[in-house]
Amino acid sequence: MHFRFRHQSLDLMDGKLVKEDVFPCLSRGSDAFRVYLTSSELILQSVKDEQTIERFQLEDLFGCHTLKHAKKANEPGAYLCFYMYPKNKRSGILSSVKSRERTPLVFLVQKPGKSFKENLEFATKWKDETLKHLRSLFPVWLNYKPFKSSSGSVHTTHEEDTVGQNLSDSRNYLTTTPEFSVAISSYHLLQRRYLVILNPKSGQGKSISIYRDKVAPILQEAGIKAELFITERAGHANSFVSTANFHDLHGICTVGGDGLLFEVVNGLRSRPDGSQIAHIPVGVIAGGSGNGLARSLASYTGESSDYLKNPVLSTTLAVARGRVVQVNLTEVDLDEKRLFSFLSAGWGLLADIDVESEILRPIGEPRFTVWSLLRLMKLKTYRAQLSYIPCSHVSEKPVIREPIPETDVGDISARTSIEGDFISIYSSIQSYIGSDLIFAPKATANDGRIHLTFIRSNAGRACATQFLLALDKGTHTNINGVTYVAVKEFSLQSKGGIGGNLVIDGERVSAEKMIVRISPTPLNVFSM
Ligand SMILES: Nc1ncnc2c1ncn2[C@@H]1O[C@H](COP(=O)(O)OP(=O)(O)OP(=O)(O)O)[C@@H](O)[C@H]1O
Questions:
Q1: Residue 233: which CATH number?
Q2: 49 labelled catalytic
């Protein structure tokens, strides 16, 4: 589609022209620009030199505000600010890498003979129109009152949209799976409300200042009303979300690590209305030392380099943008108890390193390396029965390069059971289990697979060492003695209790029998 820009024909891509006007741009030396808002872009064309055109995708816009000049109280002009974070090429030796950079665009709205109030109203119309299109790109449903029609099927209802009518395409968002067939009683377009749960002890104990200085300003610019809950102890987030009122809430974000998110997810799913609120998206702002889910999300969406450069900014932008994606979740049955896991379930070597290295926390990340060396010197094995059901739709055959197991029961195309001694059994449902630990390179966001690895005792120390060394490259599944198989369910049991450390999403649990299976209701998360 082409629209005739002043004296020049330009491709409007697939966008429709929404608004057009001329404003001086303070971010471009106060030069006048013709500004075009389309349904997918913000386009700037210099008035002085019409060949000078800048295009910004609305996808890279994270907020829009109207402002008043703090020092010019009598100025009749209002300011219109667009907060863009486009991907620009980095300068220097990494020039081929594109990364998101804050690029505010500030325009002066000052119509001849108009008062400040009138200019502000004019600017506000621009802001509302911009946010309306931005929100419709990334819709988030509100509320969760189940509504049954007389025929018994579940329907989706809407109050009238307050603005705009062209949202029909997005209306079925998140209602495509039966689990999300919940009624929507209202639909806020412009302002969003998030509950932010913060662990002040996570990472290096700086989450409060991280939130205040780096996260809250971006959320505010994005038009998000954030209500902050600071945890006082382990388990506090879980008990809070188990009973909190989520009316009119667009999302729940955590500022911390995977442990905090684990509490939130399990608190939500354990509620009596858990199935009705399962659609509420959760977001994770990487403030902890373990952020496997955030790292995986970045890898799924091609944002790895931004994440590694600045995890807090990258994850805050994902939460502020509000795009919702679904990721794998597993139900973990531990004897009589059920937990939900979004990351990993493991036992033996890797789990021991994760839990036992806790005493070296003050030395930071190197604690894993130090403890790995200690554990390799004193290699332990644990006896249990492992049983799994491979994914039937997985095209690759499971790779089994280990010595013949002591007892193998069953057909690899159905349930397989192995009883004996193991060095490690570890599974993940995301690609990364830590910032630099790529456990399942082939994993995608909602592939319905549990990526299971195990090492039998007779594979020995050399295999265990190679396994640990290969985890940062994701090549551990190629090592002789390491078995990798994509499964839809697995179980682990040992009479008298599963010895050693059994960990779910990095949290220690205990049981005689553990069954891990893909949940029919995936987890909705904010992601770029
Ligand atoms: N206020 C608090 N005081 C102490 N512990 C807390 C508090 N709030 C949450 N926790 C617990 O702290 C643990 C770790 O939290 P979190 O995942 O946010 O940080 P982390 O730095 O990534 O930690 P880890 O590296 O241990 O995973 C969680 O198990 C959580 O239950």
A1: 3.40.50.10330
A2: no
